[in-house]
Amino acid sequence: MDRKIEEKSGGFDCEIIFEDRPVDSDQNRLFRFSQKKDLSAIMPEYQPDGQLSQEVFGAYIDKARQGEGLVFDWVFTLSDGRLLQANVRMTGNEKHVTCRIRERFTGRQSDEGQDIERLLSNKAYQERQRLAIENIPMITTYWDGNMNLIDCNEFALEVFGMSDKQEFIDRFYDLAPERQSCGNLSTELLKQYLKTAIETGTAKFDWSHHKSDGELIPIEVTAFSVKWQGAPMVIAFARDMRDNYKYSEEQRVSRERMLAMLDSSPMACFISDEGFNLLACNQSVVDLFEVRDKQEYMEKFPALNPKYQPDGRSSVEKAREKYDAVFSTKQSVHYEWMFHTINGKKIPGEVTLRPIELDGRELVIAYIHDLRQIMKAVKAAEQLQKLAYTDSLTGAHNRRYFMDTAKSELKKAIEEDKMFSLIMIDIDDFKLVNDTFGHSVGDEILKILVSRIRHIMRKDSAVVARYGGEEFILMMNDTSPESAKMIAERIRQNIDSSKFKVGDVEVPVTVSIGVASKSEDAKDLKQIINNADAALYEAKTGQKNTVVQYSSSE
Question: At what angle do helices 399-416 and 371-389 cross, to 10 degrees?
Fold first, then answer.
C-alpha cells in the first residue's frame, strides 16, 4: 500500500511517497517541510559519505525539477530518532517533484541503524576536525603514500595567493623554485622528506616556495605520517617564516654593522660578557698585541694581562670591580691598565668600558687607548720645548728661556717680598782664544765653562743661560746681594784655577763677573740686567778676572 504526503513548498509541489512501509501520524509530521532548508527535520546533518544532507538533497530536487530522473541511496531520521536507510527515486518537473522512498534493509535493521549512527557520529567528528584544520593559522597540506598532494587548508590558499584548492594542487610544483637553498632539486628533496616522514613518523625541514605573484616565502615544515583507510598518508604543517626571517635579518644587519664599525675603529677594542669571555675584537687589537689573528687574541686574552697591576692590585679583582660597575650602573667606566704583548712587552693603557646590547644579551665593549703614543707625544713635546729654550752649542738655557723665566720669577719675588739676584759672566779675551786656537777650540771652551758653572751651582737654586756670544747669565731666586757676590767669587776662582784642555791644547781661561740684585731702585727685569751688565763692564775694563757688584751709589 502506498501512502502519500503532499506539501506546497517553494513554488512547487513536493510529494514524498513511502513504499511498503506503514507511516504513523508522528512520522507524517516529521516528514513535512515547507522549504528545502527544512530538510534537517527529516534527515541527519551529514550522510555516511560526509556530504551535507540539506545541501545535496536540495541539489537533487533542483535537478528533478529540470526533468532529470534520479536514483540514490539516502539516510533519513525517523520520529523516534532512529535512522532509516533508504533507496530514493526522484522524478519531477518545474512544478512537481515526486520522491519514492523504499527501505533498503529488512533484516538486521537495528544493527545496521546503529552502525550508521556510529558512522555519522564519526563523520560529524571528522567535520569538526576539518573545520579546525581549515581555520588553523598554519599552512596544512595532505599527501598520499605516493607523495602526491591531495588537499590543503584555506590558510594555505591565503598565504600563497590561490583562488581554490584545486589551483593550489595543480600549481604546487610549478611554484616551487627549481632548487632549494641547499642546492638540491625541490621535487626530489620534498619526496625525500615525505618518505622520511612515512618511514620514521615525522620529518622537520626548511623550505622555500613562491606565491602566485612570484614572492619567495621561507617556511618551516613539520610532517607527520598517519594512516587513512589502511594506507599511509602525510599531513604537513608549515609556518610562514617571513616575519621571523625579517627580524633575524634585522638582527644580522645590526650585528654586522656593529662589528664593521668595531673592525674599522683605529682604537683597539673588544666585546666580552660579564665573565670576561671575549666574543669579538677588531684588527687594531691584533696589531697592538702583536698576535697572529683575532682568534689567537681571544684565546690568549687572559695571558695578555699581568697578574698584578702597577698599583699592586690583582688584575682579576680589579677587572671584576670595573665590570660589576658597568653592569650594575649601565654607565661607562674609565681606568688605567697595564697590558703586555704576546712577547711580554709592556703596554700602558687607558681602558673605557661601555655597556651594549648585542643578540639580545647585555655585554661590554672595551676600548683600549695605547698610552705609549701619548707618552711619546709628551716626550716629543718636551724635546721640542727643550730645543726651543736650549742653546744648541753649550746645552745651557737660551736667552729666550731666561727672559720668560726671569720675568715670572721676579714678579713672584716682588709679590712675596723676596730677594732676587743676577750674575753676568764674560770670558776674558775670548776673541784672542778663537784667533789663537781656532773657533772649534773656542766652542769647546764654552761647553766646558757651562759644565763648570753647573757643577759649582749644583746646590744652589739658579738658572744658567747663554746670554750671547761668550756671555752667560745666572738667575738666583731668594738670594741676597751678599750671597750672590759670594757665589760669583766662587765661580771666578774655580775658573781661574781650572785647566781648560781641548785635546792636546791647554787654554788659560779667566772670567769677569757683574752682580746686580732687586732693590727699591731696580724692580724691573730690564733695569736689573742693565745694572748687572754695567757691573760686568766695570770688571772687564778694570783688571779683568774680577767680580764687581752693582751699587746705585756709584
Answer: 90
350 is catalytic: no
- Residue 289 CA from chain centroid, whole number: 23
Q: Are 217 and 155 in contact (CB under 8 A)?
A: no
Which among 475, 266, 440 is positioned nearest to 370, based on CA atoms?
A: 266
- Are the beta carbons of 31 and 54 closer than 8 angstroms? no
Give the CA-trace dihedral at 521, 527, 530, 531, to 10 degrees.
20
Nine cell digits for residue 324: 660589576
User: Is residue 222 within 8 Å of 204, Cβ to Cβ?
Assistant: yes
Alpha helices, DSSP H, located in 48-108: 53-65
Phi first, then psi: give them for residue 83, nearest 5 degrees: -100, 140
Residues in contact with 175: Cβ distance below 8 Å, sequence separation at least 6, in sequence order:
160, 209, 210, 211, 212
Q: Of the CATH numbers 3.20.20.480, 3.20.20.80, 3.30.450.20, 2.30.40.10, which one belongs to the domain with range 136-240? A: 3.30.450.20
Is 182 exposed, middle or buried (CB count within 10 Å of its CB: 0-12, 13-18, 19+)?
exposed
- Helical packing angle, 430-437 and 439-456, nearest 10°: 130
Contacts of 2 (CB under 8 A, 6+ apart): 17, 18, 19
Q: Return the sign of the alpha-carbon dihedral for residues 415, 416, 421, 422.
A: negative
**One-letter-per-residue 3-state SS of 353-372:** EEEEEECCEEEEEEEEEEHH
Helices (H) and strands (E) in the chain, counts: 16, 22
> Do 265 and 284 contact (CB within 8 A), yes or no?
yes
As a 3-state breakdown, the chain gives helix, strand, coil percent values, each rounded to 5, of 45, 30, 25
pLDDT of residue 135: 65
Which stretches of the chain score pLDDT less than 50? 1-10, 22-34, 37, 106-110, 112-113
Closest-CA residue to 216 (of 241, 199, 238): 241
Q: What is the pLDDT of residue 131?
A: 61
Assigned CATH class of 266-374: alpha beta
- Single-letter amino acid, residue 9: S
Nearest-5° Cα angle at 126, 124 to 131: 95
Cα distance between residue 525 and residue 514, in whole Å:
15
Residue 35 corresponds to which cell in the numbers above? 522549504
Catalytic residue from among 199, 470, 482, 489 = 470
Pairing of strands 547-549, 511-517: parallel
pLDDT at 145: 85
Fold held by 390-549? Alpha-Beta Plaits (3.30.70)
Q: Are 223 and 236 in contact (CB under 8 A)?
A: yes
Q: What angle do CA 201, 206, 211 make, to 5 degrees?
A: 115
What confidence score (pLDDT) does residue 443 get?
A: 92
Neighbours of 377 (CB within 10 A): 10
Query: Do the beta carbons of residue 43 and residue 75 sit within 8 Å?
Result: yes
